[in-house]
Amino acid sequence: MPIHYSLDVPRGGSGGVGDLGALPSLIAALPDHAIVRLDAQGRVNGWGTAADTLFGWNAEEILGHDVERLFAPGTAGTLIAHIAPGGGRKRETADDQCRHKSGASFRAITSLTSIASAGGAVEGFWLVVRDVTEERASASSIEASAILLNSILETVPDAMIVIDDHGVIQSFSATAEKLFGYDEAEVLGRNVSMLMTTPDREAHDRYLSRYLDTGERRIIGKARRVIGLRKDGTTFAHELAIGEARGRGRRVFTGFIRDLTQRETAAAQLAELQSELLHISRVTAMGTMASTLAHELNQPVTAVANYVETSLALLQAGAPGSDAIVQEALAEAAAEAHRAGKIVRRLRDFVARGELDKTVEALSDIVDDACALGMVGAATPSIEIERAIDPTTGPVLVDRVQIQQVLINLMRNAVEAIPGEHGGIIRVTARPQGDFAQVTVTDSGAGLAPGILATMFGAFASTKRDGMGLGLSICRTIIEAHGGRIWAESRPVGTAFHFTVPRAGRETRDD
Ligand code: ADP
Q: What pTM value is reported for the model?
């Protein structure tokens, strides 16, 4: 007859014996724990129901058999040593290989507690067995996932940074180390804003708490272009995609970062090459146009000469009534001279600016792109960029690429004007000015060299050793082609460059 613990709780004195009174309820609370009672010789003399499930034996089959039957062959040794009389220990926990009735083995944590008589002699043992096969499997699958994740993180070309909901860096991938120049150990536990430039640097904690408060997703799930700050103080453009993960009451944000430096340097070079190419092709085309124009010009110039000569002859002859004819002839001459002027202007325009591809654009987009491109490749320790676009400015009607080029030129000049070792600030602002938007790029640099103000918008005016002196003259051509103006102004510290471009819907017509 099976022995039930509830009926057969041994009484006893010391050690594990004291716990035995609570055993029945303990058994009920631990369904995955098989509880087996052994006599002092290691034979089974008590068998719980969970043991049936775990080992496949029922009480009738197993009672009286040696405990060896419950273990994989040869593995019960350690246990038996403690069971042997005089083993002396009251409790032993081990990681064992147990054996099912079917012969299959499974991993288990076993625990053995001696049952002592009132006189202190060992009367038997409680053996508690817990199957850990599944636990181990899931632990090893977690470990496998972690290994897999690490191997991915080591190899994905994108850098990865994990932060918690306070912005504190939790993990920093190998590519992130390369990209930012920090070792993981240097950044772990620090706020991720250390990797950002103004204004994100100051605002990041606010972005994060706003998201946590409102749940409103502004950048999560979207990729956006931002500027990163390296350990050495230089900056670089990157694309940032943020994901969010929650689990076990924790929330983490994962940022994937793709370096855009190369792509943007290539794009900037391409844009430069393209505009160069356009310029060259216009100059070449001008050659073919020259003969046509010479012919076109010939007409008004000949007409001017004719009118003037006729007038001269009339005046010399002093014939009565000739005044009116002279006046008319001179008016015609002036009109022809204007026509010639227009032809020349057309030629100049064609050479200098080509066709404008005007579209309605948001100034802030052009400024953002230009700020990024203007800073590409610049060794710019701690140069801050501030943008302030007055929202009432509205969209502008411009050739986006060309206006970008103007801004890039101005930004590069500003960067070059700021002495390398000190750092400084470049401010880009825009505000409405009647039918135009006025854009201003101010730097905290060295200021204008004496005398350059008068000539710098002309071609080949440069104070730089390697300067071409073409940047500002190209800017002027572009801005004037838009019907705007460009000018510079010395500031107590640094220089301000202003230019205007037409606001959309208010374009002033060219003549
Ligand atoms: P480059 O940069 O090749 O010299 P630019 O036409 O762009 O040609 O500039 C002409 C000159 O104007 C520069 O050599 C410099 O002397 C002056 N300049 C332009 N921008 C600035 C600035 N932000 N601060 C001081 N000087 C400037």
A: 0.41
